[in-house]
Each structure stands twice: as C-alpha cells, then as structure tokens.
Write a structure and sequence with these properties.
single chain, mainly alpha, two-stranded parallel sheet, 7 helices, 5 strands
C-alpha cells in the first residue's frame, strides 16, 4: 500500500511497525555476533572460557541449534539447509571439546538479547493461526506480516479482512509489541464484531500474552462468554434492579 494508506490503516501500520522491529532485532543480532566472532580466535587461544564436560556439551549444542531454528522460523535469520553436528563422537579430542564449548557459549550470547522478542513473534503467529483458522500469517522483515488464504495460498490484502479479523491483528500486535512491561491495559468491549467462539477463548489467550509481556488488564464487557469459567476474576458493576 501507499505510505499514506499505511498511516490511515491500523493493520498496515501494525505490519510496518513489526517490520521495523524485525529489522532492528536483526541489526542488533548482527552487531553482537560480529563482536563475538572477531574476538573468537583470541579467546580460544588464550582459553578465556569455561570448558563444558562431555556429558553437558550435547544439551548445550542442542539448545543452540534449536535457537537458530527458531530465529529462521520467524525471519530473523536466513534459512539454510547446512548440516549441524547431531551426535558427538565418544572419543572427542580435548581441543575439539574446547572449541565446541566456546562456540556454544558464543552462540548463546548471540541469541540471548533477542530471545524475548522472538518469543513474542512466535506467540503472535500462534495467536493468529489459532484464531483465523482459514488463514495463515507469514512473518517477514520486509513487510512485517502478510496474510494468506490457507486453501488457495492467495495473499489477502488487509482491506479484504473482516472488521473482527482486523481488530484481532491490531490488538495482538499492540499487546505483544507496543505494551511496556508493568503497564495497565484497559480493553473496552472486545467482543464487538467477534464470533462467540472467539469470545470464549479470549481471556485464556490474553492471560498467556500478559504473562509473556508482563502487563495487567482490566476488561469492560457485556458478554458472559468473555470471562467464561474465570468468574473469580470478574467484578460486576452496578446493582440489580429489585
């Protein structure tokens, strides 16, 4: 869409904001990785690192490879089919053990600063896929996110989404990427334009998101489906008419 359209369209604006966040995360990762890679030889030669035991190293390497896979899934790292070390030989020489120990520690440090952001991106994708069961969302650093029809694979313009779907995308984006930790979020009648099935699942998913981000929410609603079984979290306003 045209720049002016993005400024007017809340969904396009959310996508553009996520694109900026993805690009910044990739830049931060590259800068951190470059610094570690540059000093790797010196630190290895001077043994400025802790050596893993042979028993602990496989788990550390598995965590590293899982982290890189995660970054590829959400578009922070380019996808590659390069093979990884899946099994360590029983007779691994001491110098190789030392090399892999430093490699695992550096990889952890490279991934650590963007782990929180990656978790939010994964949760955003999960929420959209769970709620829009006939559509898919793809994360890309260039566009932020794009929506496709799950059956035809055709890209759906944001203007082609229903008002409830648009509301959903903007809401989850704002909660996951624009809400500061410790914030108090006020949500007024989220059930508007929502199917009953969405209303029933909203609170559980909201609690999951708030646990990741770290905010508190007050919801004003007329729908009995929003609280569902969480009646302990409700506070009725006003007195019943006698």
């Amino acid at each position: 869409p045209h720049e002016d359209d993005r400024e007017l369209d809340p969904v396009a604006r959310s996508a553009a904001h996520l694109a900026q966040r993805l690009q910044q995360a990739a830049t931060d990762y590259a800068a951190n990785a470059q610094g570690l890679d540059r000093t790797f030889p010196l630190r290895f030669v001077e043994e400025q690192y802790a050596v893993s035991s042979r028993a602990d190293l496989p788990a550390r390497l598995d965590a590293v490879f899982a982290g890189f896979d995660r970054m590829q899934r959400i578009g922070l790292l380019a996808r590659t089919d390069a093979p990884v070390l899946s099994v360590l030989p029983d007779d691994l020489e001491e110098h190789k053990l030392r090399f892999l120990s430093l490699y695992a520690d550096d990889a952890r440090q490279k991934l650590e600063p963007i782990n929180d952001f990656a978790e939010r991106v994964e949760l955003f994708v999960q929420q959209v896929h769970d709620w829009l069961d006939d559509k898919t969302i793809t994360i890309t650093p260039r566009a932020g996110f794009v929506i496709h029809d799950k059956r035809t694979r055709d890209r759906i313009p944001f203007q082609g989404l229903s008002s409830g779907e648009r509301h959903l995308l903007v809401m989850w984006h704002e909660l996951l990427f624009s809400t500061p930790r410790g914030a108090l979020v006020l949500i007024d009648e989220p059930e508007i334009s929502w199917h009953v099935s969405w209303q029933k699942r909203f609170l559980d998913d909201l609690l999951r998101v708030s646990a990741v981000v770290g905010f508190t929410t007050i919801i004003a609603t007329h729908s009995p489906f929003i609280p569902g079984e969480h009646l302990d979290l409700t506070f009725p306003l006003g007195q019943p008419v006698a």
